[in-house]
Structure formats: C-alpha cells, structure tokens
Write a structure and sequence with these properties.
mainly alpha; RNR-like; AurF/CmlI; p-aminobenzoate N-oxygenase AurF; 319 residues
C-alpha cells in the first residue's frame, strides 16, 4: 500500500532526495475501497443505477408503458456507459497526460509526487470499477459490459488530429478538462433517492478522490496555461471548448440503442428521443457540469469559456 504518512517519508530519507514539498497522499489523491469490499444488498424493483433526471427519455409514455423493469434496465445501461466513460478517461486521457506532465520541468504548484499519486489513484479506480462489475453481476444478474465510450472517443479524436508539435499540449488539455469536469458529473449521476446503494457508494467514493484531483489540476492549469507560448495559448484557447463539448454533449446514438434494447423499435426510439430531449435543458446541464473549468479559464483570461457557452446554448440533437 502507498505510504501516506509524512513521518515515514522523512524516516526513509525521501524528503532529502527530493527537495520539493510533499503533501500527504490523502490531500492530493487517496484511493478508497469500501464500495468494492462491502457486501451488496439485494436489488428491489424500485432501485435505479443512474439519476433519472438525466434520463428524460425514461419518463416518456412509450417507456412508461414498458413498466418499471424497463426503466431500471435503461438506468443500468446508462450506468454501464458511465463506467466505460470513467474507466477510459482514467487510463486513456488522464494517465496518458500525466506521463507527459511528468516531463514538464518548470511547474511547481503540482509536484512529481502529486502527479504519481493521482496516476496510482486512476489505476486503482479502474480496478475498483472492474471489481464492481463482478459483484454487481453476482448480486443483481446485470452484466455491466465493457464497451468503447462515445464521448471519450470524441475527446481522443480531437487529440489525435492535433498537429504533431501540439499533440502533447492537446493530451494535457484534455486531462485538464476531464479532471475538472468529472467531479460534478459523478455527483449528478449518483443523485436521487432511488439509486441502488452500492452504485451511490461507488460514485461517492470516486467523487471524493476526484475532488482532490480536480484541485490539483486547477492548480496545474493555473500555472501551466499562462506559461505556454502565444501560439500554443491560441491553439489551446480554440481547443478547450471543443474538448469540453465533446466530453459533455449527450450520447444520443447510445441512448437510441438503449431504448431499442428494452423493446422499442427504431422509429419508436427516435420518437421518444425527439419528444423528451429539450435542447435548452441539455444546454443548461452542460453549463452546470462545466462550472469549474468555465470559472478557471475565465479567471485565466481565456475566451474559451464564452465559446463553450455558445456551444452549450446552440446544442441540438444530431439528425
Ligand atoms: Fe478517477
Ligand atoms: Fe482523476
């Protein structure tokens, strides 16, 4: 297990080898494990796996006609997507970026020690999710399948098309965005009285760790973004709102598949989505989820917050 005791660090001589100040592990990161270790209670028909207020299509009359079991199944599918999104953010975006961030010599607000603690946390979170999938299947019978995540694919493709000399900047910017967005999205996903308690515990524990990561990434961004060259700054100012939109915009094709898998045909699924998704409401939710990075980027004098607000206001379902 990680050393989280400052005295142990001093005793082993680590502080002498590394003159930068070291925060306690639990102040920066801190892996937790209750959600994966506690026994799961039995599932009742009223339990949901995802905040239903983020699933307006689950309240549509055509879905209500299918009964409570269809609504529960839809919430399982949203939670499955959420786990896949989170897991791919941890490894494919954040830890990929931390490998690059470790090579930036001039940053002092986040130390090498802090970054390695976060790197370890993210690896642990993917293990926690994997354990959760196994426990969930044993207790509830629901299989939480591993699949690609549409929103993470959108973020990664923005990094992949970056010019070669800006590729590392894009990867680090993507992590700054996801790490300052994910705490709020975790909190929103687990809100609601009907959430199956192990789901609530998993999201709350992960959210507590992510709050510490968010603080570290806010410090890092506050030092890193003003330190880049003028050209790099302009590139990042243009890229950041695209990354935020890619991460937060609804995954309509996935929701369509979910509706078909609970028994609607493709035309009915189109109708449910068309009649239940209010673009203005989606825009408000995107703005709320992005509060922390919007404030951060505005404080740094970047124009990207305003352009993200335009994207959110103008969001419409894909045709
Ligand atoms: Fe995480
Ligand atoms: Fe994180």
């Amino acid at each position: 297990m990680p050393i989280d005791d400052g005295e142990a660090d001093s005793a082993s001589g680590v502080l002498e080898m590394n003159p930068s100040p070291q925060r306690l592990w639990r102040e920066v990161a801190a892996v937790t494990r209750c959600a994966t270790e506690a026994p799961f209670p039995s599932l009742t028909p009223g339990h949901l796996f995802f905040n239903v207020s983020l699933m307006p299509y689950a309240m549509h009359p055509l879905v209500c006609d299918l009964g409570q079991s269809a609504r529960q199944r839809l919430s399982v599918l949203r939670f499955e997507d959420y786990l896949n999104k989170t897991e791919r953010v941890e490894l494919g975006i954040v830890n990929r970026a931390i490998e690059k961030m470790l090579e930036i010599p001039r940053i002092t607000s986040v130390t090498r020690d802090d970054l390695l603690a976060i790197y370890t946390d993210e690896g642990f979170h993917t293990w926690m999710i994997e354990r959760f999938r196994q426990h969930c299947q044993r207790t509830t019978g629901y299989v939480l399948a591993r699949r690609p995540s549409l929103s993470v694919t959108r973020v990664q493709s923005l990094c992949d098309v970056a010019p070669a000399h800006y590729r590392n900047l894009a990867i680090i910017a993507a992590a700054c965005v996801t790490e300052t967005l994910i705490t709020t999205t975790l909190r929103q996903a687990g809100a609601g009285d009907d959430i199956y308690p192990p789901v609530r515990a998993l999201l709350a524990e992960h959210g507590a760790d992510e709050m510490r990561h968010q603080a570290a990434f806010v410090r890092f961004s506050g030092e890193w973004l003003p330190s880049v060259s003028k050209d790099e700054g302009e590139y990042l100012d243009a890229l950041l709102p695209e990354l935020m939109t890619a991460f937060l915009a609804p995954e309509i094709p996935a929701w369509h598949d979910h509706l078909c898998s609970v028994g609607l045909d493709a035309m009915q699924a189109d109708r449910v989505l068309g009649e239940s998704i209010d673009p203005l409401e989606v825009g408000v939710q995107m703005m709320e989820a992005a509060l922390v990075p919007r404030r951060l980027f505005a404080r740094l004098g970047l124009s990207c917050s305003e352009r993200f607000a335009q994207h959110a206001r103008r969001w419409r379902p894909p045709r």
